[in-house]
From TrEMBL, chain B:
It is found in: Cell membrane. This is ABC transporter permease. Residues 284-404, 769-885 form the ABC3 transporter permease C-terminal domain. GO terms for biological process: cell adhesion. One of its GO terms (molecular function) is transmembrane transporter activity. Belongs to the ABC-4 integral membrane protein family. Pfam families: FtsX (PF02687), MacB_PCD (PF12704). It is a multi-pass membrane protein. Residues 17-229, 517-735 form the MacB-like periplasmic core domain. Keywords: Cell membrane, Membrane, Transmembrane, Transmembrane helix. The chain crosses the membrane at residues 16-36, 274-298, 333-355, 375-394, 422-443, 463-496, 517-539, 765-791, 812-839, 859-879. GO terms for cellular component: plasma membrane.
């Protein structure tokens, strides 16, 4: 790929994922080749049903591909056992989810160190301080999630994803449930974590504004990669979406248009 | 709406499985109890129908049933209660009556059979009796050998099987006074199942010699002559009445003739009464099980409503009224109850089959009929549905209160506060504690007016105890959510530290919804509270018995019998044993007793009509110097006995209202001279004693005057050593002396205490077994809540798994949650149980419970059981949780 000069933290080759079988089978991924480079914030965009979430799940070891390979940090994870995948998620991968992403019974600080506690790893204090400082929540660390705003919760979730220094962080619609101001804070933090803390982040999103924070945007439609932008502006993204949607057959465009209209309104 | 409700159950059958199971178990217990009772009833009805077959019975006119059942040995032929005896000589008079074929005196009594291995056949419960055989009795069928002559016996077939004896075998039979070598001449059968009774047939002469030495028998069976007699079948009721009237006309005072039908009815009635108690006793435990089951159902619906918040709000938004939502939830509960009830009926019927099969293996045969009436099935179904619907009322009310706008909201309604529960709990517990305190005060006080308020003094301590215990339990249940968070936080501290981060996560989960955890633990709380009350009662009884025997028994050794009757021969043997000093035999009998002169006020007169039978014990005059040292509440027991006056047990004095100074007329004025006459004696002392549980004590001479010799039995013998002999030596000589009597044992004080303690333990085992069901249901409740909360927390579990939580770690969290819930319920339950138990000694002092003892070892064991229950309960939910696919769990809506 174009960023071959940078080491790929995660890559997929000829990735196929089929749900169901026989006449009702759905090819969610239809031969995807993609690399996510170290130190980059990549956004994956596409209409509903384009396979962007499936791609992320397969690359994060949450789902196993029907065929093809996924390599994370130099290790082929596509045929790994559940037990090894669990260990991999614990040490090499960070997650940020759309909603309900904190354990409600734990404080913010406990939520952040949860992956380390689970793997019984000592918390690297300096890194922890750096991460919590970056999310800007040092004074709210001992509050429960229910006492935090949506944006604050999502920033805690981001800090949790980073605290174990994962090879790569996957974020699934991280701003989907947030108002635009909170969304801006979260996205700014994700970008900073890449630029200043040297992390690697892959983010699935509907939202062109969110995607505009990324170094690179990958467009998916009908299970295939249909386009790519570098350091895009929101306008470029909208144009590309319109173009790729127009090019792709089926019911995609309407979805995208509505989504885009909503998000940008 | 109803369709929506039923679809809801159909869509998530797993969520209701355990609720159904809880109802099933409770209803099965109820149905099993009914069927068990029917089985016992039909067995005993068979026995009565096949043993009480004469046309007319002649018996004493006066009923003298005492307070305790110890007085008279059990006798199947005499189920209607103990009556004054009649003279066997009446046979000749009766046989003169027109229409009477023959009259056969019933001579029977306790006997101990020695089996093929030389061991005594001891029955616990069913009687072991010998009786004079009437070969013409149509109810007895000789199946092998011949009817007995002198020195021979016949055995009922199940007795022969139990003892391993057959026709021609030689063995020993302990009859009344002495062991006799006998030959088994044959085996006979009765039409009914013997239900564990040992029946030994004797030749008539031996039976009369043993059981009617003075010619007095319990009753005389009269057979009609003519076409109605013998194998032509029983005569019609009209004929029986006719003959009974004619026989009755010729009888002297003190004897009466009743028809066979009346005798059978009376026998059935008294059995039904006993079975009624058994049934009530079992139904109490069934009710506890159902009550515990209600917690599971309430929790299930609570969680189901919470989960379906948006769906229910949507229904409201679409125009459903709160009433319709309410009804739809109750409809689900009704369905759950009905299915559970139906399964429970089947399970209950199966349960009784298993019980009968088990009893048959133990050689206790019961009649095969245990049919369930349509009414009982209907009752079981109604019960299941009612419990389920009642349990779902509160969740249904919550569901009805959901505002339609909730359908649009994403957030879940916050947990309600627990302040009202705290206040309610404290108020109810305080009320209960007050009742317990009052019960204890009233029960232990000898004063007439312990509180000074008439209304309070008139309350029954036992009712207060029951009300107080119930209130305390309910109060703890009400207040439990308020204390759940702090108590659980403390309980979980060691685990939080030891199991990072699992302990912390589990702690969070159990404290996140105190109401849910509290009501899950509530089911276990009830069971454990009952277990610990039972444990405290048992431990206190044992401790009390020990201290009583230490202080009360003066004698060195006690001679007791497994049959509760020491044979006269054995008493003589004890008297003759070398080294035996004072030998004090306690003889029991029943005699009418009534006040003829209250408090020496000179209002002498005829005894009032309520001259009830009272247990009378006959003891030597110096009994209280040598054998026992009871607590003398009033008067001096020793001088009272010497004066020939009456010593009254506190319990009897209270029941009958007798006081020191009252003159009692003991004995029956109607009976013939051979029965003893009446004696007027003054109440000289009131004692409190645990070893003498009987009504009144008099010296032997008085006893002989008021109780017919044929109606007495020696219950126990106290022996003191002569100077110069050691207790150990006396023990050896006594043991040798009573050895031929097989059932008689010699005990020192320590063993006497242990013997009582063993009895307590046996009862304890039965109670624990009955309580086990509610503990099992409570365990199901924990499984239920955990499984449902796993479903509810699917997304959170997915998140934990996504960030790297292993399956075993997840299972660990659920196990810790489960154990914490179980231990919480148990800690609260045990504390409640011990609290209630603290009031018992005051109330149950009469029952031999004077010291409070908390069985701490048992408490620890119960906590251990709680941990095991928690672990067991977590297995299935933990497996379910760890099998949740991570992806689906993360992406679930």
């Amino acid at each position: 790929m174009a960023m071959g000069d940078l080491e790929a933290r995660a890559s997929a080759r000829d990735l196929v994922k089929v749900y169901g079988s026989g006449p009702t089978a759905v090819r969610a991924l239809d031969g995807v080749d993609v690399d996510f480079a170290r130190g980059g914030l990549t956004a994956i965009m596409g209409p509903s049903g384009s396979g962007k979430s499936t791609l992320m799940h397969c690359m994060a070891g949450l789902d196993s591909p029907t065929s093809g390979t996924v390599v994370v940090d130099g290790v082929d994870i596509s045929r790994m056992s559940q037990r090894r995948l669990t260990a991999l998620r614990r040490t090499h991968i960070g997650f940020v989810f759309q909603s309900y992403n904190l354990v409600p019974t734990l404080t913010a600080a406990e939520n952040i160190t949860l992956p380390l506690d689970i793997s019984r790893t000592r918390v690297d204090r300096a890194w922890y301080d750096e991460v919590t400082a970056a999310v800007g929540l040092r004074d709210r660390l001992h509050h429960r999630p229910s006492e935090l705003s949506g944006g604050q919760q999502q920033r805690v979730a981001c800090a949790r994803a980073l605290v174990s220094r994962p090879s790569i962080v996957f974020a699934d619609e991280p701003t989907g449930n947030l108002d635009s101001r909170s969304a801006g804070e979260v996205l700014a933090f994700l970008r900073r974590s890449v630029d200043e803390l040297g992390q690697t982040v892959v983010m699935v999103t509907h939202d062109p504004r969110a995607a505009s924070y990324a170094h690179r945007v990958v467009f998916l439609a009908d299970g295939r990669i249909v386009g790519e932008l570098r350091d895009p502006t929101q306008q470029e993204i909208l144009e590309t979406l319109a173009g790729s949607a127009g090019g792709a057959a089926g019911d995609g465009p309407a979805d995208v248009d509505v989504d885009v209209a909503e998000r940008t309104a | 709406m109803i369709r929506v409700a039923l679809r809801g159950v159909r869509a998530h059958p797993v969520r209701f499985v355990l609720s159904v199971l809880a109802v099933t178990l409770g209803v099965a217990f109820v149905v099993g109890t009914f069927a068990f009772r029917t089985m016992l009833s039909s067995t005993f009805d068979d026995i009565i129908a096949t043993t009480v077959v004469a046309d007319v019975y002649v018996r004493g006119a006066e009923e003298v049933s005492g307070d305790s059942t110890e007085a008279a040995a059990g006798d199947v032929q005499n189920l209607g209660g103990t009556r004054t005896p009649v003279s066997a000589d009446l046979v000749e008079t009766i046989e003169q009556v027109d229409g009477v074929d023959r009259a056969v005196p019933d001579v029977s009594g306790p006997a101990v059979l020695v089996d093929a291995d030389g061991e005594a056949v001891v029955t616990t419960g069913p009687p072991s009796i010998a009786f004079g055989i009437d070969p013409q009795d149509p109810s007895l069928v000789l199946t092998d050998g011949a009817w007995p002559d002198a020195g021979e016996i016949v055995l009922e077939s199940s007795a022969a099987r139990t003892a391993g004896l057959a026709a021609g075998d030689e063995t020993t039979l302990v009859l009344g006074d002495e062991p006799r070598p006998v030959t088994v001449s044959g085996v006979f059968a009765i039409e009914a199942a013997a239900a564990g009774a040992i029946l030994v047939g004797l030749d008539d002469a031996t039976a009369r010699e043993v059981y009617a030495p003075d010619g007095e028998v319990a009753q005389i069976a009269v057979w009609a002559s003519g076409p109605a007699a013998g194998d032509a079948g029983p005569p019609g009721a009209a004929d029986e009445e006719d003959i009974a009237d004619r026989v009755g006309a010729d009888l002297p005072d003190g004897a009466e003739a009743v028809t066979g039908q009346q005798a059978r009815d009376e026998a059935s009635e008294s059995i039904e009464q006993v079975l009624g108690f058994v049934q009530t006793f079992l139904l109490i435990f069934a009710a506890i099980a159902l009550f515990v089951g209600a917690f599971i159902i309430a929790n299930t619906f609570q969680m189901s409503v919470r989960e379906r918040l948006r769906e229910l709000a949507l229904l409201r938004a679409l125009g459903a009224s709160p009433g319709q939502v309410f009804t739809s939830v109750l409809a689900q509960a009704f369905l759950v109850g009905l299915v559970g009830g139906g399964l429970g009926v089947l399970a209950g019927a199966g349960l009784v089959r298993v019980i009968r099969w088990g009893l048959a293996l133990a050689d206790l045969e019961f009649a095969g009929r245990a049919p369930l009436g349509g009414g009982q099935v209907a009752l079981a179904l109604v019960l299941g549905a009612a419990v389920s619907v009642l349990a779902a009322v509160l969740p249904a009310r919550r569901a009805a209160a959901i505002p339609p706008v909730q359908a649009m909201r994403d957030d879940v309604a916050p947990e309600r506060g627990t302040r009202t529960r705290a206040v309610g709990g404290i108020v109810v517990v305080a009320a209960g504690a007050g009742a317990l305190w009052l019960a204890s005060l009233l029960g232990s006080s000898v004063s007439e007016s312990p509180t000074g308020w008439t209304w309070a003094d008139d309350l029954s301590p036992r009712v207060l105890l029951g009300v107080g215990a119930g209130l305390v339990l309910v109060g703890v249940l009400v207040g439990s959510p308020a204390v759940a968070r702090p108590v659980l936080t403390v309980l979980s501290l060691p685990l939080v530290v030891a199991l990072r981060p699992l302990g912390r996560l589990a702690q969070g989960n159990v404290t996140r919804s105190p109401r849910r955890t509290a009501s899950t633990a509530g089911a276990l709380l009830i069971g454990m509270a009952l277990v610990s009350v039972t444990g405290v009662i048992a431990a206190s009884t044992q401790a009390s018995v020990r201290s009583i025997i230490d202080t009360e028994v003066r004698a060195d050794l006690v001679v007791d019998s497994a049959t509760r009757t020491v044979p006269d021969g054995a008493v003589d043997a004890v008297r003759d044993a070398p080294g035996a000093g004072t030998v004090d035999a306690v003889r029991l009998g029943v005699a009418p007793a009534a006040v003829v002169d209250a408090g020496g006020t000179g209002t002498a007169g005829e005894p009032d009509a309520g001259s009830d039978g009272t247990d009378v014990a006959g003891v030597p005059a110096a009994f209280f110097d040598t054998a026992l040292e009871p607590v003398a509440l009033e008067g001096d027991p020793t001088s009272t006995l010497e004066a020939g006056d009456v010593v009254v047990h506190r319990r009897t004095a209270r029941e009958r209202g007798w006081e020191v100074g009252d003159t009692l007329r003991l004995g029956s004025a109607d009976s013939s001279e051979a029965d003893g006459g009446t004696v007027d004696a003054t109440v000289g002392a009131i004692i409190d004693s645990q070893l003498v549980g009987t009504g009144v004590l008099v010296r032997d001479e008085v006893f002989d005057d008021v109780v017919p010799a044929s109606q007495t039995s020696t219950r126990i013998v106290y022996v003191t050593v002569t100077p110069g002999t050691t207790v150990a030596d006396l023990r050896v000589s006594l043991t040798d002396a009573v050895e031929p009597y097989l059932v008689v044992t010699v005990l020192d004080r320590e063993e006497t205490a242990s013997a009582y303690a063993d009895q307590v333990d046996q009862v304890l085992v039965i109670l624990y077994a009955l309580l086990a069901l509610s503990i099992v249901i409570a365990l199901l409740g924990i499984v239920n809540t955990l499984a449902l909360s796993v479903i509810e927390r699917t997304r959170e579990i997915g998140l934990l798994r996504a960030v790297g939580l292993g399956r075993l770690q997840l299972a660990g969290i659920i196990a810790v949650e489960s154990v914490l819930t179980a231990v919480y319920g148990t800690v609260l339950g045990v504390a409640t149980g011990i609290g209630i138990g603290a009031a018992l000694p005051g109330v149950l002092a009469d029952e031999g419970l004077s010291t409070l003892a908390v069985p701490w070892e048992q408490v620890l064991a119960i906590l251990g059981v709680a941990v095991v229950i928690g672990l067991v309960a977590s297995v299935w939910p933990a497996i379910r949780a760890s099998r949740l696919p991570v992806l689906e769990a993360v992406t679930v809506d």
